[in-house]
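Contributing new complexes? Match this layout with glutathione.
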Amino acid sequence: MEATLYAIPGSHPSWAVRKMLELKGIDYKRVDLMPVVSRGVLRAMRFPGVTIPSLRLDGRKLTGSREISRALDEARPDPPLFPADEVARARVEEAERWGESVLSDGIRRILWNAARRDRSALRGYLEGARIGLPHGVAVATAAPFIAMEERIHGSNDPRVKEDLASLPGWLDQVDGWIAEGVLGGDAPNAADLQIAAALALAMTLDDLRPAIEARPAGRLAGRLMPEFPGKLAPVLPADWLEPLRQPAAA
Ligand SMILES: N[C@@H](CCC(=O)N[C@@H](CS)C(=O)NCC(=O)O)C(=O)O
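Output block (do not edit by hand):
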């Protein structure tokens, strides 16, 4: 099987797909791209979309972590990323869809907003990445790319403040799915990987980690994505973080 993953350093759904490929024992080549540039590359290569992760799998071009999880299960069914039982599968699909849209998009918005406040931290997210230019140069020239990513993903201040207010509820949702056994089984499913990658990225922010790490959601992320790179010192306004200081729902 021939597989090439198009990734962005520190991209959480890219990490989810990396783990899927590893779990399935599929050898793959990884092409690291810088954000924004990634859009031009994927367009030129005629992928069906312009977002990361994208995967070339035996000549098939796939864009999107949810499309990729399904294609990988078809191409190599073992170990499965979705349960065989229909009802259980529907629950995992629901959690995966929520993880990809609500959680993952929210964490991405928070990350870009925070990165604008401390661009130097981006260096840590580049660990192990081969982007075709020295990491110091990438960081020094990152400001316009961060601004573009903020625009593309709507990481404006009011929205990110709202995302931070939503985060405790998102964590309750993940803890709830873990308690019900939808997430957190011995063999990770597609939703585990989608959600754990987003939370692992969230925990690279010192502003967020204390509210996440000790919860079942945080422990899941730590178990499945222990090597997620990057670290961002506290940068977000204290009043935005107020909702994270409330005790977790019982
Ligand atoms: N929801 C999509 C991810 C879409 C997305 O926004 N990906 C980001 C990386 S995490 C990206 O492509 N950023 C570069 C850009 O939009 O210019 C998935 O799970 O596949």
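Reviewers usually confirm one structural detail per submission. For this one: The radius of gyration is 17 Å.
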